[in-house]
Amino acid sequence: MSDKTLFEKICNKEIPATIVFEDDRCVAFRDISPQAPVHVLVVPRKPVTRVGLAETGDEALLGHLLLTAAAVARSEGIAESGYRLIINNGADGGEAVPHLHVHLLGGRKLEWPPG
To answer: Residue 97 above 80 pLDDT?
Structure first.
């Protein structure tokens, strides 16, 4: 059996995190190294390695992650001013944890291009 990812452990509450939302499909929590005043990660409870490895059966879950990120943006008070959603895929894409997650960033003007 493979080891659990950091995010699986957070979803299972084996590792503490500041959770801002959770339901039966995902958990949203504050990033421990925020890159903006609001930096929340929206993580599926199902351990999908990365978006590039998601399967057709994950379609509803992927949509749920984006809708959840939008709802969290509203609850964090950044929906009107704007925010950015980021999904990193692979090492060159900036992926640090091999568990699909959506970064929700906002609370300040975000520049383009990013990094």
So the answer is: yes
Which of 39, 64, 99, 101 is the catalytic position? 101
Give the β-pairing of 19-22 and 38-44: unpaired
What pLDDT was estimated at residue 73?
Answer: 98
Quick check: is 21 in a domain?
yes
72 found inside a domain: yes
66 assigned to some structural domain: yes
Give the total number of structural domains in the chain: 1
Per-chain mean pLDDT for the chain = 96
Q: Are 98 and 50 in contact (CB under 8 A)?
A: yes
Range of the domain at 89: 6-106
- The set of residues, in sequence order, having a beta carbon less than 8 Å from that of 83 and lying 6+ positions away, is 38, 73, 104, 105, 106, 110
Q: Is 99 a catalytic site residue?
A: no
